[in-house]
Amino acid sequence: MFFLAITAVLSTESKSKFISEYKTCIKRDTVFYNPISGHHLVGCSDTEREDMYGLDGEEIYYYNFNKNKAVVAIPEFADSVSFRFPTDFEPCVYNLKCKSVSIYFPVFTDPPQTSIYPRDDVVVSVENTLICHVTGFFPPPVRVSWSKNNVNVTENITLSQYRPSSDGTYNLFSMLKIIPLEGETYSCTVNHKALQQPQTKIWDVEAVLPGIGPSAFCGVGLTLGLFGVVTGAYFCIKAHTNCSQLSLMSDCTTVKTC
């Protein structure tokens, strides 16, 4: 896999020199309405293509080449923004034939860091989403796969666009919809050219059974309340008994005195 990309900030001068050789293929523009934090990413590989505008680290537009339509990621209440149709891919695909250039400019790579976590608090038998966050890698692409109890999973998976980070690397989200059951194990495996072997993160279902939490707290509260009532009644009765005994003793003392 050979992916060409340029980022808003490059971590080394050598990497910048290498990437500059592909200016005819990959272009990064500063978005006209924010020259500080806006970016435009155009990239392609043997199998993938990407055209994305971003702002402050978030994507606001990308082109879905599989469905051949533009996708605006900003909320409906935001000001409308128009984008041109992507036209940079013919020279990009053509330049993929020039891979020999990398002999003179070695490819710099940064390995990804991967984490896996649930979107919501986990409750057994209640639908949730597992998120696999892959960050700090260069260059794209990266491959993400899921498994459940060591069996490969291919359904209910969504993948975000490649998002450039401020240090010149990229990050990506892969999401898997699940209905967790106690004892299940899920894993997220990442493949990247900077890794000597695939990177796998494992997540075990450690959940609360539906309704156990509130019921347990209610039961404990009721028990403590009853204990308090019984204890109070005991001391009240004991105090009343002591008062009665003292009253009788006082009467006896009065009789003897007389």
Describe this structure in words.
With 258 residues, this protein is an alpha+beta fold. It has 3 domains: 13-103, Class II Histocompatibility Antigen, M Beta Chain, Chain B, domain 1 (Roll); 113-204, Immunoglobulin-like (Sandwich), CATH 2.60.40; 211-258. It contains 3 helices and 14 strands. The protein has helices at 13-20, 89-95, 212-257, and strands spanning 28-29, 38-44, 49-55, 58-64, 69-72, 113-118, 128-137, 143-148, 151-153, 157-159, 163-164, 170-178, 185-191, 199-204. It has a 5-stranded antiparallel β-sheet with strand order 1-2-3-4-5. Strands 6, 7, 10, 11 and 12 form a 5-stranded antiparallel β-sheet that branches. Strands 9-8-13-14 form a 4-stranded antiparallel β-sheet, with no helix packed on it. Strand 13 (185-191) and strand 14 (199-204) form a beta hairpin. The longest helix is centred in the C-terminal third of the chain and has 46 residues, at 212-257. The termini are far apart. Residues 1-12, 17-36, 97-105 and 251-258 have low confidence and may be disordered. It is found in: Membrane. It is a single-pass type I membrane protein. One of its GO terms (cellular component) is MHC class II protein complex.
Largest sheet composition: 5 strands, antiparallel
Poorly predicted tracts of residues: 1-12, 17-36, 97-105, 251-258
Mean pLDDT: 69
For the secondary structure, the number of strands is 14
What is the helix fraction of residues, given as a range?
Answer: 10-25%
What order do the helices and strands follow? HEEEEEHEEEEEEEEEH
Strand content: 25-35%
Q: What is the CATH T-level topology of the largest domain?
A: Immunoglobulin-like
Number of domains: 3
Q: What CATH first level of the largest domain would be assigned?
A: Mainly Beta
The CATH homologous superfamily of the largest domain corresponds to: Immunoglobulins
What would you report as the Rg, rounded to the nearest angstrom?
A: 33 Å
Total helix count? 3
CATH structural architecture of the largest domain? Sandwich
If strands are numbered along the chain, what order do they take across the biggest sheet? 1-2-3-4-5
CA distance, first residue to last residue: 115 Å
Structural class: alpha+beta
CA-based shape: elongated
The oligomeric status of these chains comes to single chain
